[in-house]
Amino acid sequence: MSALLWALIALPLGAGAALLLSGRRWNALAPGLGLAAAAGTFGLAVASAVFRPEASAPLFAGVRAGLRVDGLSAVLVVAVAAVTTAVLVASPGELGPRENRGRFFGLMLLFAGAMTVTVTATTLPPLLMAWEVMGATSWALIGFWWHRPDRVRAADTAFVTTRAADLGLYLAAGAAMAGGVGSLDLTALTGAQGGWRHVACAGLVVAALGKSAQLPFSFWLSHAMRGPGPVSALLHSATMVAAGAYLLLRLHPLLVATGWAAPLVAWTGGVTALALGVVAVAQRALKQLLAASTSSQVGFMVLAAGVGDPSGGTLQLLAHAAAKSALFLAAGAWLTSLGTEQLPALRGAVRRHPLLGAGFVAGALALAGLPPLSLWVAKDEVLAAARAQSPGLYALGLAAAAVAAGYSVKALWYVTRPLPHDHDHDHDHGQEQDGGRRGARGPTRSVSTPVVVLAAAAVFLGVAALPGLSGPLRGVLGGGQQHAPNPWEMALSAAVALAAAGAAWWWLPRSAHAPRTASAGKRWAADWLSMERAARAVLVRPAFALARALAAFDDRAVDGAVHHLARGGLTLARGAARADDHGLDGAVRAVAAGCRRLGAWARRPQTGLLHQYYAQAVVGFTLLLSIVLLVR
Amino acid sequence: MNENLAALLPETILLGAAVVGLLAGSLLPRRRQWAVAVLAAAACLAGLAATAWTMATGREQTVFAHTFAVDAATGLGRLAVLGGLLLLVAMATRTVRSHARESEFYVLLLMSGAGTLVLAGANDLLLLFAGFLLAGVPAYALAAFAKDGRGTEAALKYYLLGALLGTLMLAGTAVLYGAGGSTLYSDLRTTLPHASPALVAVGSLAVLAGVLFKAGAVPAHFWVPDATDGALAPVAAHVTTLTKVGGLIGAYRLAHQVLWGTALDWPGLFALLAALSMSLGNLAAFFQTSVQRLLAYSTIGQVGYLLVAFPVAARTGLAQQSLLFYLLAYTVTNLGAFAAVTALPHARTLEDYRGLARHRPALAAVLVVCLLGLVGTPPTGVFLGKLEVFQAAVEGGYTWLAALAVANTVASLFYYLRWLAPLFRPAPHEQPSAAHRTAGRGPVATACAAATASLLLGLAGGTLLPLTTGPLLR
Amino acid sequence: MLTLVTFLPLLACVGLALAPRSVPDRVCARVWAGTAAADLALVVGLWVGFDPHGGMQYQQNHPWIPAAGVGYHVGVDGLSLPLVAMTCLLFLATALYSLRETRRVRSYVCLFLFLQTVSVGLFVALDLILFFVFFDLSLVGMFFVIAGWGHGGRARAAALTFFLYTFTGSLALLLGFIGLSLAATPHTFDLLELVRGNPLAGQGLYAGLVLLALGVGLAVKTPTVPFHTWLPPAHTEAPAAGSAILAGVLLKMGAYGFVRIAMPLLPGSWRRYALVFVIVGTVSVVYGALVALAQTDFKRMIAYTSVTHMGYILLAVGAAGVLAGTDAQARSLAVTGAVVQMVSHGLLTGALFLLTGVLHDRGGTYAMDAYSGLSSHAPRFAAATGVAAFAGLGIPGFSGFIAEFQILTGSLASQAVATTCALTGLLITAALFLRALRHMFLGPSRLPAAAPATGFRDLVPSEAAATVPLLGAALVIGVAPRFLLDVVEPASRTVTQLVAR
C-alpha cells in the first residue's frame, strides 16, 4: 500500500520538476502534461482515500519521515488534487502561449506535491520540508512575472513573512527532541516533557498562524495577490493558507494539553475572522477583497481548531476552497480580459460572460454564508462548537459572519451592475493597474468550466454536513457528534447573514456615489490594519539599520582592530629598524661617508663608527652582567 | 691520556687541504686555480665520510686530555659545517672564478671551517678561544675579499668588533681560570659552584661574549648586517651560517657543562637573550630593501629561535636534540637562500626580484622553499626544528618563550613575503631584466640542491633525529 | 589507497612542473581535470568499500619522525570520508570551470593540484603534525593563488592579510598540538593514541590553555566572529576558482578540526567551555547574517554568509558538549548536522562562488546595483544562481536544510536561548539572498557600463558542467540523505561518546 502513497507524492513532484526544467521547450505541451499529471494525482488521491495507505522511510537518526492518509488527510488529499486539477484546467486562459508555461505548470505541480506531503505527514521533518517548499514555490509563483520589480518585492515580502513564522516549526522540532520525543512524531508531541511541550506548541501555533495569514501575519497575503490568478486561486485561497488551519485542527490534542493554546488559537481565529472581514469590506480591488476574506474565512477554521471541532473546520476548509478558488479564477479571468480588478471598473462583468458570471455569483453567495449554501452550514457547525466554549467567541463569530455577508455582497453588487457605456474609462483603469500588458482577451471556456464546477461544489457541499446527512463525513473525519448546531442557532445565523447582506445591498448604491472622503478608520482597514507598516517599523527597518551599523562596525572596529595591531607591530618594527639602522648605523654611515669624501688616505672613518658599536656591545654585556648578578 | 688523532680526522683534513691548497695556489696558473676548489670540495667530502664513519661506529670519546669532545653534538656540527662548506664551495665557483686570489679564497674558507669545528668540539676554554681565532681571522680576510669599499668597511667592522669581544673572551677565560683553577670544563664543573658568584658571572659572561659574537646574537650582533651587506654573498653566507653552528654548539657545551652547575640564573639570561635576538632581528628586518641585509637580520632572528633551546637544556632531553637538528636544517636552508642570491649577482634589492618566477622558475622555487622554510612552514627541515624547539620550550616550562617565538614567526612572515610576493608579480618588462641574469649553472644547481636538502630534512628528518641524541662528553 | 588518493594530484603537479615548456596550456588544464576525475573515482571506490560501522578504515601508519612521536598515519571514518568526497568533487568542478583560464595556466594548474593534495591530506591525516603540515601548506597554496591570480590592485594586500592572519592561527594551533603531545607518555602526535589515552583528563588549567590555543587556531580558519575579517577581502580579491576552494574546502579545515581534534582529545575542557563555543557560534550566525544583509557587493555578501553557516557548526559542536538536560540522540544529531553542514556548505558555496566568477567575467564587477534583470540575458545562469541561493538559504530539498535542521533540532535541547537566537539567522539569510536575486536577476534589464557590447553571455558548457553537478549533489543529499547519514551518524555517535567520557 505504501507504494500508492509514494506514487501520490512522486507523481506531482516528479512531473513538476520535469516541467520546470523543460522551461519553454515544451511550451505547447506543458498545459496538457500538467493537467494529465494533476488528473493522475487526483486518481491516486481518490485511491488513497479509499485504501488509506501508510508509509515511512528513515530520515535522521531515530527520526523517520512518516506519511499516512487517515480520515482528515484523506479528505484533504482529494480536495487538493481536485482544486489543483480545476485550477490547471483554467490556467491556460491567463497563461498564454507566449508565457513560460513549463515553469508555471511545473511550479504548480511542485506546490501540489508539497501540499500533499504537508497534509499526510505524520512526523515533523517531512511536514517542515513540504511546508517550506510550499513557501518557496509560492515565492516563485507570486513573482512569476519577474520583469516587474513590484511583483518580485511582493513575493519577497510574502516569503520572508511566512518564513519568519516557519521558524516556529524548527523551534517545535527542537523542543520535541529536547522533550524526549525522539521520533518527532506529531501525535507524540503531547507527551513532550516539562516546559518543552509548551515551546513545541507555541512554535507550531506561530507557524500555523503565519502560513494561514492570521493576525498578525495577514499582510503578506495582500502582497501575494500580485501573482497570476490561478496562483491566487490554488495557493492563496484554497490550499496553502488552509494548511496552517489544517495543522492546528490535526494538533488539537496538543493545543488542549497545554491549556493556553486552545483558547489563544480560538480567539486569534475569531478576531482574525472579524478584523480581516472588515478589511475586506474596505477594499476597492476585487483580489484584495477576496484575499482579506480568505484570511477572515480561514479564521473560522482556526477558530474551529481552537474549540476542537475538526469536522466543522474541515467542512469550512472544503467549502471555502471551492468557493474561493472559483471566485479567484473568475477575478483572474476578468483581470486578463478587462485589464482591471478595481471594483468600480468591473461593473457589469457578470453580464459580459454569463457562464463565468453565474459561477462567480454562486461562489459569492456561498461566501456570504447565505442559507442553504455550504459555508452557512460549515459556519454554523463551527459556531456551535464555539458557543459551547464561550459566548464571547460565539458573538465574535456571528459578527464575523455578518461582515462576511457584507463584503461578499459588495463584490457581488459591483459586478452585477448594468454595463457602463464608456468602455474607455474602464480601460484606463486597467492600464493603471496592469500597465495594459495583456490585451483584452475573452476568457475561454477553459476558465468557465472549472469556475462553474467549483461554484457548484461550493453550493452543494453543505448538504453533506446538514444535520442528519452528515454521518458519512463525520465517519471519515472521526469527529464526535457533540457540537451539532441547534435549529435556533442555524436560524439565527441565517437571519444575521441575510440581514447583513440586505443592509449591504441597500447601502452600497448610496455609498458608491457619495464623495470619497474616507475616514481614518476606513483608511486603516483599507491598509490591512497597517500591519505591514508596523512590521517594517518594528522589525525590518531596525534590522537593516542594525545590519548597516554592524557592517560599519565590522569594517572599522573589528577589521580595524586587527589592522591597528598590525600597524602597532609595524611601528615597533620601524622603531627597531631605525634604532639599529638609522639612529646608529645611519648616523654612522653619514659620518663614514663624510670621512670618505675628505680623503681616501684617511683610514679612520670606520673607527668612528666602531666606537658606537663598541659602546653598544659593552653596555649590553654590562647590563647582562648586572642581570645575572641581581636576578638569582 | 687519549691522543687519538684519528678522532680529529675532519679537522685535520680541512687544515691539511688548506695547506696543500695554499701551496698549489701559488704554483698553479690562474686558469687552473679551479683545481683548489676541487681540492676543497674533496676535503669536505672526505671530512663528511670521516664524520659518518665516526658516528656510525659510535666512537664517542674525548681526546687530548679531555680538551676536545667527539660526541653527538660535535658530529652534527661537523655534518652541518662540512656539508655547508661543500655548498659554499659550489656556490662560490662563479663568484671568484679567475680572480687573482681564487685559491686563497678556498684556503681561507677551509681554515675558517676548521676553526668552526674546533669551536663546536672544544671542551676547554683555551681551545674554545683557539677555535674562535681560527674561525675568525680567516673570515675577516674573506669579508674583505672583494677589495671594494663596501667589503673593506664590512671586514673592518667585523674584525674590530671581533677583536673587542675576543679580548673580552680571553679575559673571561683568565677570570674563570682564577675562579676555578682550570680551563677544562670537567674541572670547572666541580670547582665553579664553590667560587665567588660575581667572579663566575663576570668570567662566564665574558667568555659567552665571544661565542655569542660568533653566533651573531644580541648584543654582539652589530657586525652582522654590515658584514653581510658588504661582503660577497658566499662570504656572507659563511659568516652568518657556518660560524653560527660553531658558536652555538660551543655556547651550548659551555652552558650545559659548566654554567648550569653554578648558582646563577643562566636559564633566565638565555631566555632573555633569545627573546631579544628574535624580536630585534625580526622587527629590524621589516623594511629592509636590500636582500642581503634582510637575510642578515633574519639570521639574527633565527639565532633567537635557536637560543630558545638553551634555557631548558637542563630540564628536557629535547633541548639538545632540537638545537642540533634546527642548526642542521637552518644551515641548509639559509645557504639555499644565499645560493639563490649568489646566483643572481645583479639583483640586490627586493624590487629586482620582481617577475623572477616567470624568467627563472627554478630559482623562484628555491626561494619559496627556503624563505618559507626559514619561516618554519612545513614540510621543510626548519619546521621540524622549530617544532622540536617549541616542544622543548613548552616541556621545559618556558611556554611564554614559545609563544613569543610564535609571535615572532608571524612577524617574520611579513618580511619574507615582501620578498616572495614580487617573484610572482608580472615584471615591468616582458624580457628578462639585467637583474635576472644568473651567475651560471653552478650557483643555481647549488641553490636547488640546498632547497631539496631542506625539504628532505623535513620529510626524512626522522632518520636523522636519533643522531642528535647522545650525551655531551666531559 | 588513501596515500594514492592524497598524492595523485601532487604527482600530476610534479609531472606538469617538469614537463617541457612546449606543452600547451589547454593540455595542462585537461590534465588537471583528468586527475581530479580520477581522484574522485578513487574516492567513490573508497566509499563503496567503506563499512559505516567499522570505525577508522583504510589506515596506513608508518613512523615518520619516531624520535618526535610523529608518524605518517592516515585513515578515514564517517567524519572525514564525506569531506574527502566533497573536496574531490569540488576540485573537479573547479578544474572544469578553469578550462577557460588563460593566465599562466601551468602554474595555476600546479597550484591547484598541490592544493588538492593538501586538502585531501588534511582530512585523512590522523597525526597532529601531519594535520598541521597540510593545514599550513593550504595557506601557502592559497596565498599564491590569491596573490597571483586575484583581480584588482588590492589582491596582494588581501593575500598578505589572509596569510598573516591565518598563519597566526595555525601557529596557535601548533602550540596547542605541542601541548597535547607533551601530556602523553610517551610523547606522541598520533591522534588515535591520544584519543585512547585522553592524557589531559583532569588537568584543568593546562587543558584549558591547550583548548584555547586550538580554539583560536581553528576559529581563525573556520572563521568565526571576531576572527573573520580576513575572509571578505580574501574572497573579494581571489579568483573565482580560488574562492570556491577557499570557502568550500579550506574553511572546512577549521570546522573539521573541532570535530576531529578538539572534541575527542579534550573532552573535559570541551564540556567545561562548551558555552563559549555556543556563544561564539551564535554570534557568528546572527552577526554574519546581519553584516551580509548590509553588503552591496555580491561576493562579499556570500563571504559573510559563510561566517553564518560556519557559525551553525560551532553552535552544534558546542551544544554537543553541554551534557546537562540532553539525551545522546540530540547531541549526536547536532554533530551529524555539523558534518553535513560542512559538506553542504562546500558544495553550495563552491557553486555560488563559481557563479560569481561568471558574473565578474561578464560584467567586470560584483556590485549588486550594477545589474538588474539578468534573467532575460542569461536564463541558465539566473536559474543556477537562483537554485544555489535558495539552497543556500536552507530550503528543504537541498543539503543545507538537512544540515541546519539537525543542528537546530539537536542544539535546542541544551542551548535553548542560543539556538533560538540562531534561528533568526535562517530568516536573515533568506532575506538577503532574496534581495540579491531581486536586485540582480529580476526586474527590468540593465547591465553595467563595463559589460561588453555583445551583452551578457549565458553559462557556457564548461561553466555549467562545473556548477550544475555541485547543485545536483546538494539536491541528492537534500532529497535522499540516507547514503550520507549512514556514513556520518555512527561516527558522530562516537564523537559524542568521546566527549561525554
Automatic annotation (TrEMBL), chain A:
Stretches the record annotates as Disordered? 422-445
GO biological process annotations for this chain's record?
ATP synthesis coupled electron transport; electron transport coupled proton transport
| Protein's cellular compartments | Endomembrane system; Membrane
- The record lists the membrane-crossing segments as 6-22, 29-51, 71-92, 104-122, 128-146, 167-184, 196-221, 233-252, 264-282, 289-308, 314-335, 355-373, 393-415, 447-470, 490-508, 613-631
Annotated keywords: Membrane, Transmembrane, Transmembrane helix
Q: Which InterPro entries match?
A: ND/Mrp_TM, NU5C-like
Topology versus the membrane, per the UniProt entry?
Answer: Multi-pass membrane protein
Coiled-coil region(s): none
The segment(s) forming the NADH:quinone oxidoreductase/Mrp antiporter transmembrane domain are 125-393
One Pfam family here: Proton_antipo_M
A GO term from the CC aspect? endomembrane system
From start to end residue, where is composition biased (Basic and acidic residues)?
422-437
The Gene Ontology terms for molecular function here are: NADH dehydrogenase (ubiquinone) activity; NADH dehydrogenase activity
What name does UniProt use for this protein?
Answer: NADH-quinone oxidoreductase subunit L
Write down the species.
Streptomyces diacarni
The organism's taxonomy opens as: Bacteria, Bacillati, Actinomycetota, Actinomycetes, Kitasatosporales
Automatic annotation (TrEMBL), chain B:
Q: State the Gene Ontology BP annotations.
A: ATP synthesis coupled electron transport
Highest taxon listed in the record's lineage: Bacteria
Enzyme superclass (EC): translocase
A GO molecular function held by the record? quinone binding
A Pfam family that this protein carries is: Proton_antipo_M
Task: Provide the alphabetized UniProt keywords.
Answer: Cell membrane, Membrane, NAD, Quinone, Translocase, Transmembrane, Transmembrane helix, Transport
Gene Ontology terms: cellular component: endomembrane system; plasma membrane
Q: Which residues form the NADH:quinone oxidoreductase/Mrp antiporter transmembrane domain?
A: 122-410
Q: Which family does it belong to?
A: Belongs to the complex I subunit 2 family.
General function of this protein? NDH-1 shuttles electrons from NADH, via FMN and iron-sulfur (Fe-S) centers, to quinones in the respiratory chain. The immediate electron acceptor for the enzyme in this species is believed to be a menaquinone. Couples the redox reaction to proton translocation (for every two electrons transferred, four hydrogen ions are translocated across the cytoplasmic membrane), and thus conserves the redox energy in a proton gradient.
Write the protein's name: NADH-quinone oxidoreductase subunit N
UniProtKB/TrEMBL annotation, chain C:
Principal subcellular localisation of the protein: membrane
Localization terms from the record: Endomembrane system; Membrane
The molecular function terms of the Gene Ontology recorded here are: NADH dehydrogenase (ubiquinone) activity; NADH dehydrogenase activity; ubiquinone binding
Q: Which residues cross the membrane?
A: 79-98, 105-123, 129-150, 162-184, 204-220, 240-261, 273-294, 301-326, 338-360, 381-403, 415-437
The keyword Transmembrane is assigned to this record: yes
Membrane topology term reads: Multi-pass membrane protein
Q: Name one Pfam family in it.
A: Proton_antipo_M
GO-annotated cellular components: endomembrane system; membrane
- Specify the NADH:quinone oxidoreductase/Mrp antiporter transmembrane domain's residue ranges: 125-428
Q: Which domain of life is it from?
A: Bacteria
Instruction: Keyword check for Transmembrane, yes or no.
Output: yes
Q: Name one GO biological process term.
A: electron transport coupled proton transport
Q: Which UniProt keywords apply?
A: Membrane, Transmembrane, Transmembrane helix
The family classification in the record reads: Belongs to the complex I subunit 4 family.
Among NCBIfam families, the record links this protein to:
NDH_I_M
This protein is called NADH-quinone oxidoreductase subunit M
What organism, scientifically named, is this protein from? Streptomyces diacarni
